Q: What sequence folds into this?
């Protein structure tokens, strides 16, 4: 990995792209530290320092993807979450709305329209989320247990400026992410998520180091992270390659086809999305309990004991079931065996030993179900191990949904290095003769 970056910086064109990408990432981190107008920065820091400051799981997830900007109530408080949510919604709508499915099949023109719809939906969601978080900050829900006011001036003009500022911050994040994709190296949105999560690691390790026996616990945690990283790299690069052969055909006087290729099916086709969905749904009851005025009610105590505690048996069981469900659900949306089989048949392709058409679709479904089962179990194990390990060490879960954080960081790192290597090969390809 380091060798690839070293060779890239020696190539002038790639060096410009890497410096541009690093500059945008630095700008993103700077925006995460600039407070929104109307916020009392001193009181915000006081509330963050309280034991229960922003401790809800769902807010912890949003705070993780914003690089800590949400609890800081900064200009980039919403982070990249509105865009992620909008992208997922647009993908899900392809199954429900035929027009979206038709746009997906139109190629570059259809993709441009879907991207435009995603942008509009991102701004709409940003307005809703900004309004929600400002309201939660006003009512003290964002920082439970904190008595100071983080918004001294609660007049409507000031609140409106705060909402517009956070929404504009999301629009700027979306734009700079697209600039990285177009003029930099790697996928812009993925790199911004990578930056947000990586920025939270030093602080989390520092908090573990501050407890009794912190040095030993930090070493154990770092060792566990390295082992999980190796496992994630191994699984993320693993794939089942289904051979596909194309029959020869005559077009005029020319012969076409006769080539052999394969269909790569990754073990983890859904990436980290099932973990995010499962964590979000499991955190909703706890977030709803925060709005109740009767904090001593039986149902609230049951939610706090069984759903909000990551080490509770019921929490783990529901968490695993949700991860399994969303892994199969999301994979079925992104990979359609019937469409793949129809495209193969249209261009004269077939799997050796399998008839074209419906038998090919059934075979792909059979293989996909087996691989998805392995991927779902892998996601559940990786998502649970850091939480259970930190709980066993007597340390609170400092990194929200720790396993998913590692999956994102390692996955984005692998994807970026692969793109750098591919561009290096294009620029240093020597061929048969030098």
A:
């Amino acid at each position: 990995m380091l060798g690839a970056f070293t060779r890239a910086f020696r190539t002038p064109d790639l060096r410009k792209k890497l410096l541009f990408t690093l500059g945008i990432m630095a700008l993103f981190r700077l925006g995460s530290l600039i407070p929104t107008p109307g916020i009392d920065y001193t009181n915000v820091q006081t509330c963050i320092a309280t034991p229960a400051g922003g401790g809800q799981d769902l807010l912890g997830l949003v705070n993780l993807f914003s690089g800590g900007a949400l609890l800081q109530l900064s200009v980039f408080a919403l982070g990249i979450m509105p865009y992620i949510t909008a992208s997922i919604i647009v993908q899900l709508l392809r199954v429900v709305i035929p027009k979206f499915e038709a746009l997906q099949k139109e190629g570059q023109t259809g993709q441009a329209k879907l991207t435009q719809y995603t942008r509009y939906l991102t701004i709409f969601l940003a307005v809703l989320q900004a309004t929600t978080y400002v309201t939660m900050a006003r009512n003290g829900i964002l920082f439970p247990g904190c008595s100071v006011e983080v918004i001294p001036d609660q007049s409507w003009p000031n609140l409106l400026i705060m909402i517009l500022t956070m929404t504009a911050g999301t629009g700027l994040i979306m734009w700079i992410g697209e600039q990285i994709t177009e003029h930099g190296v790697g996928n812009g949105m993925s790199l911004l998520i990578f930056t947000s999560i990586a920025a939270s690691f030093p602080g989390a390790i520092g908090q573990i180091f501050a407890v009794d026996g912190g040095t030993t616990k930090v070493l154990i945690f770092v060792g566990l992270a390295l082992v999980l990283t190796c496992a994630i790299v191994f699984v993320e690069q693993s794939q089942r390659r289904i051979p596909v052969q194309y029959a020869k055909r005559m077009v005029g006087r020319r012969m076409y086809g006769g080539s052999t290729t394969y269909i790569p099916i990754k073990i983890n086709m859904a990436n980290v999305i099932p973990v995010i969905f499962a964590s979000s749904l499991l955190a909703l009851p706890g977030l709803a309990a925060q709005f109740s005025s009767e904090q001593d009610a039986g149902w609230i105590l049951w939610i706090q004991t069984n759903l909000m505690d990551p080490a509770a048996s019921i929490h783990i069981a529901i968490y695993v079931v949700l991860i399994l469900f969303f892994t199969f659900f999301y994979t079925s949306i992104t990979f359609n065996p019937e469409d793949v089989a129809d495209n193969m048949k249209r261009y004269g392709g077939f799997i050796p030993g399998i008839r074209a058409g419906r038998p090919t679709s059934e075979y792909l479904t059979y293989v996909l179900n087996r691989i998805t089962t392995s991927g779902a179990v892998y996601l559940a194990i990786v998502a649970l191990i850091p939480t259970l390990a930190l709980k066993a060490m007597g340390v609170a879960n400092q990194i929200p949904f720790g396993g998913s954080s590692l999956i994102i960081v390692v996955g984005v790192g692998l994807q970026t290095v692969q793109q750098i290597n591919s561009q290096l090969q294009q620029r240093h390809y020597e061929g048969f003769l030098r």
